[in-house]
Amino acid sequence: MQYRKLGDTDTRVSVMALGCWPFAGDATWGAQDDKDSIATVHAALDSGINFFDTAEGYGDGRSERVLGQGLKGRRSKAIVATKASPDHLRSEDITLSCEKSLRNLGTDYIDLYLIHWASRAAVMAGRSAAIGSGGSAEKEVPLQETVNALERLKKQGKVRAIGVCNFGVQDLSAITRLTGIVVNQLPYSLLWRSIEYEIKPKCADSKVGLMCYSPLAQGLLTGRYKTADDVPEGLARTRLFSNKRPLVRHGDPGAEKETFTAINKVAAISKKLGEPMASVSLAWVKQRRGVTTFLVGARTPGELKQNLPALDVRLSAETVKELNAVTEDVKRYVGRNPDPWNSGNRTR
């Protein structure tokens, strides 16, 4: 296992982290047995993975609670990241959210506490609700208020480091003027390269590490699905898919043909290398400059085991260039909006 430094802290996290959203057993991932989730946590620790990512919003805290059960007796071996929801960013609310997360996790400290989405994301959701109900939208919470609360939590020893998720250039600039953050968690994969336009360079300039989610594009880069129609409804809701599909929130036409053309080309390159497509896709993310860690979502020890070989794959500069070329059409379609689920960019 490889380990990389978490920002300017003394903490070293595994380059492969376990994303615990599937433990929620929600509409996105489907039913999940808690025993399988706990076994997966144990398998991750046994394999050298020490970094675990969850959020209060995953299954209304269920993901946090299950992760906490999995870490009983082994908490000191783990680095835990969890997130405050965008409608909980007022000073009192974020304090209450942190306390609830601590109880859910069965711990007295959170290694990395992240703002899940900037307050503007909650404001946009409020405006949408207001349009439909005739009500008024919630006001944006001043970033300074949120930062002050996070700094108090750090001083109290309840939080050890601060990070953000889904922050664009403007929000990233604003928060780095107020406090030090160690990571920006963003979607990044061969099929979702929007951060390369401006957010990734800004993170590098600000010395903020990338914590990459959906590095396998929610399973598309595993070879599991041969056509867009094979993808389950809960996963076929990003902007890569038609807006006519169930559960989608965006208004984009989708790029299903381009996406599966790219997938087939990535599969061909992987076959030529003699490596599974998932391993090649994860290795590509692992080798991108500025990446601290990437999340893999596994529901069973077996699924986790399938991802581990990627740690031993090293891609040549020529192969990286080839992978970039075959996914360029999808990159152009996705554009600068890093939000996988909404046409209206919730980042700024």
Fold blueprint:
Blueprint: E1 3-5, E2 12-14, E3 16-19, H1 34-47, E4 51-53, H2 62-70, E5 79-84, H3 91-105, E6 112-115, H4 119-133, H5 143-155, E7 162-165, H6 169-178, E8 183-187, H7 199-205, E9 209-213, H8 256-273, H9 277-286, E10 291-297, H10 301-307, H11 317-326, H12 328-334
Parallel strand pairs: 3-4, 3-10, 4-5, 5-6, 6-7, 7-8, 8-9, 9-10
Antiparallel strand pairs: 1-2
Helix pairs in contact: 1-2, 1-10, 2-3, 3-5, 8-9, 8-11
Q: Describe it for me?
A:
39% of the residues lie in helices and 13% in strands. The relative contact order is 0.14. The protein has a single domain (3-226, 277-314), classed as Alpha-Beta Barrel (TIM Barrel), CATH 3.20.20. An eight-stranded parallel β-barrel has the order 3-4-5-6-7-8-9-10, surrounded by five helices. A two-stranded antiparallel ribbon has the order 1-2. The protein has 348 residues and is an alpha/beta fold. Strand 4 (51-53), helix 2 (62-70) and strand 5 form a beta-alpha-beta unit.
Structural class: alpha/beta
- CATH architecture descriptor name: Alpha-Beta Barrel
The beta-strand count equals 10
The Rg value, from CA coordinates, equals: 19 Å
Roughly how much helix do the residues carry, as a percent range?
Answer: 25-40%
CATH class: Alpha Beta
Largest sheet: 8 strands, parallel, barrel
pLDDT averaged residue by residue: 92
Percent of sequence in beta strands: 5-15%
Secondary-structure element series: EEEHEHEHEHHEHEHEHHEHHH
Enumerate the strands of the largest sheet in spatial order, edge to edge or round the barrel. 3-4-5-6-7-8-9-10
Shape descriptor reads globular
Taking the alpha carbons of the first and last residues, their distance comes to 35 Å
Overall tally of domains: 1
